[in-house]
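[User] I have long wanted to understand how a fold can be written as tokens. Those tokens are not coordinates but codes from a learned vocabulary of shapes. Could you go through the record with me and say what the backbone is doing? Thank you; the sequence and its tokens follow:
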Amino acid sequence: MAKLPGAKPRIGLLGTGPWAARTHAPALAGHPGVEFSGVWGRRPEAAEALAAASGTLAYDDVDALFAASDAVALALPPDVQAPLAVRAAEAGCHVLLDKPVATTVAGAREVAEAVEKAGVASVVFCTLRFAEETARWIEERTAAGGWFLGEAHWLGSLYGPGSTSAYAASPWRREKGGLWDVGPHVLSVYLPVLGDVTAITAVPGPADTHHLVLRHSSGASSTATLTLSAPPEAAEVSLALYGTGGRAELPRWGGAVEAFGTAVDALVTSARTGEPHPCDARFGLRLTEILTEAERLAAQSAADKA
């Protein structure tokens, strides 16, 4: 049974890596409306260090953290996150998930079904849907309508020459590349504005680059080029829409800590009202379905040319 958050909901954190330490923990520790109930990690010493730096408790038993929390935020590799999210939901905890929810459709579906069965709230932290500048832009573009084309480039240089990013050491990012790491960001914009994806074309490019052409339920089409291996000189993030209102370009956005705080608020609101959030576990499942199909088609394209 889902827990009922009190005046100051208790939210725990699963994960101790750079993303957890730089975004999740500071947001939870600094949020005036919640109690940061504790940290669990696969490395107990890292959980101890992050908890001490955040003024909370470290747990070596994840089920004990579930018992001490009304909700949990997860900052873990997707296929580690998914089964733990299922366990959290079964314990009655509302879940604030990272993207992608999982890298298999089966894993993402298990999360969505567990959330629904337990009656808990869920939110997937797609940054652009919670950063003030981009969230407002997406809402305005969705309300305006009339779009017939979208064009996106997300050219990260995580694996480019000279990169010193802490995220480059992430095994799942190394394995799955930009399609899975930054693809959810682009889709999180396209789907509310242009509608669900009804057809996909995908081909591979250099290194981990993927080129996607998407057809949407509104009749619009969109493109996306995604990579983590661009040379630093060529790195860019851009997304533009074209339609009856002309051209609209996605604005720059502020820090992830502030956006995550907004996602925390969204989870608490959903838990209290019972109203699903648009970026819930079911939305996370849909992202995984689209990315899985794109990955399959790109691999098939590469095999056909071999």
